[in-house]
Amino acid sequence: MWATAVGVARVRALETERANALFRDPLAQAFATAGGLWPSTPPRPDDEAARRRRQAVSFSIVIRTKFLDDLLLQAAASGVRQVVLLGAGMDSRAFRMDWPEGTRLFEIDTAAPLDFKASVLREQRAVARCERITVAVDLRDDWPGALAAAGHDPAAPTVWIAEGLLIYLPEDAVELLLSRIGAQSAAGSRMGLTLGSRGVIERFGADAAPGSAASLWVSETPDDPVGWLSAHGWEADSHTLRERAAAYDRPISTPLQREERPGGLISAVRR
User: Fold this and answer.
1) Which one of 134, 167, 197, 266 counts the least CB within 10 Å of its CB?
2) What's the rounded Cα separation, in Å, for the pair 55 and 261?
């Protein structure tokens, strides 16, 4: 499953090469190369549907990365000094972003991706720009306990990031995750989520290859994500990919699709 995170790194590496990149991720190519996904292999020329799906997913990864980068910078500017990346994968924000002094960044994931990541980081001699703490635990287990043991302080505000994660979790697991996050979040904490809508799951999962990322998508965006998060104690804003892409000067030229509503990019503040 963590190989999906290496695929995300490949997308970020390709974005980094652009002259007008929305972000720069110097470690992404190293992760993709070590994971066997660099250089990338394009879909067969005769498989136009596969090419379009791949392009759409890659585009969404780029936009969501920028969206969450901005959210993290805003949280840091507001004084939040604890960051928790849930299902961190090959995320390199600890290394590529400028963090205020005193920032502690926790990466939660299972041992296999964290070990792979550590080997690449050693090879690259990467140096984190904040205090980086890895927490090897499955999110189905007692990750709040493991996070607390690693030094997380629930009495201080935290910014939580669940990027490309919830779509893989069944509804009951999503609810449990949010409840656990809320229990560890002081007032003023922030949260950034990416969600997947029913239309996206149907469109990409219908003919997805067994074992591929899209074949594992199960969780749908609630009809009212803002109200849903309000019930969990969060004041949220919901954005569509199209809205954020236009704001970043990467407008989507295709007609509006029904699966683009409601918004799948969420920023929230703990009440």
Assistant:
1) 134
2) 20
